[in-house]
Amino acid sequence: MTYAIRLAALMALMISCLCLAAPASAHKVNVFAYVEKDEIAGEGYFSDGHKARSSTVIVKDASGNELAKTTTAKDGTFRLPLPKADPPLTVYLFASEGHENTYVLKASDIGPGSGEPAAPVIGQTPGQIQSPNAAQEVPPAWIAAAVDQAVAARLAPIRAQLARLAEQGDRVTLKDVFGGLGWILGIFGAAAYAASRR
């Protein structure tokens, strides 16, 4: 009988350890940001799927200077003007209960437009609109910059979804906990059966 009591106590201890460990990752906050036209857009969310509402978002440059600040909406999203600063830019998210995380926007994420003059609209020069035939005279570097900005804007939501999926891949779900408990109970059951047969 003492063996059964020890076995039950050990199982209770293991189950309580698993239950206490699960909430630690449930409140991890994540932030993802991308550049869309002249704005930094992004989303803050907890690893359990809840949105980081009314959270403070601050953008800082490489020296740690604050460049822009805003608050997330009810759905966890935010938008703020793209600061005129050289990359990298770091987006800080400060959520409730002291949770915080960062996301770094590199030069490849920002593209031209932060520290450099933006590529002009094809067919226009400052102060005047040219005829459509003038589009043939646009420098290739401006075309490349415009294409890079368009592609980056279209890929940003996909990158956000991939980041969210990667985060979910590291998360322990309730299904994982019960699956682990099933294995533990099965192993202890087999051990108890083998002990009773002796």
Give the SSE map.
Elements lengths: L1 H25 L2 E8 L2 E8 L9 E5 L5 E6 L5 E5 L7 E6 L5 E6 L1 H4 L13 E2 L2 E2 L10 H30 L4 H23 L2
Antiparallel strand pairs: 1-2, 2-5, 3-4, 3-6, 6-7, 8-9
Helix pairs in contact: 1-4
Description:
The protein has a single domain (27-171), classed as Immunoglobulins (Immunoglobulin-like), CATH 2.60.40. 41% of the residues lie in helices and 24% in strands. It contains 4 helices and 9 strands. The chain has a 4-stranded antiparallel beta sheet with strand order 4-3-6-7. Strands 1-2-5 form a 3-stranded antiparallel beta sheet, with helices on one face. Strands 8-9 form a two-stranded antiparallel sheet. A hairpin with a 2-residue loop joins strand 8 (124-125) and strand 9. The model is unreliable at 22-26 and 113-132 (pLDDT under 50).
Task: Name some characteristics of this structure.
41% helix; alpha+beta; Immunoglobulin-like; elongated; 198 residues; 9 strands
What CATH calls the topology is Immunoglobulin-like
H and E order:
HEEEEEEEHEEHH
Rg is 26 Å
> Looking at this structure, what is the CATH superfamily?
Immunoglobulins
Q: Order of strands side by side in the largest beta sheet?
A: 4-3-6-7
The CATH architecture assignment turns out to be Sandwich
Discrete helix count: 4
The unreliable regions are 22-26, 113-132
Count of distinct strands: 9
Tell me, rounded to a whole number, the average pLDDT. Answer: 77
The CATH C-level class name: Mainly Beta
Helix content: 40-55%
Proportion in β-strands: 15-25%
Rounded to the nearest angstrom, the distance between the terminal CA atoms is 14 Å
Overall morphology: elongated
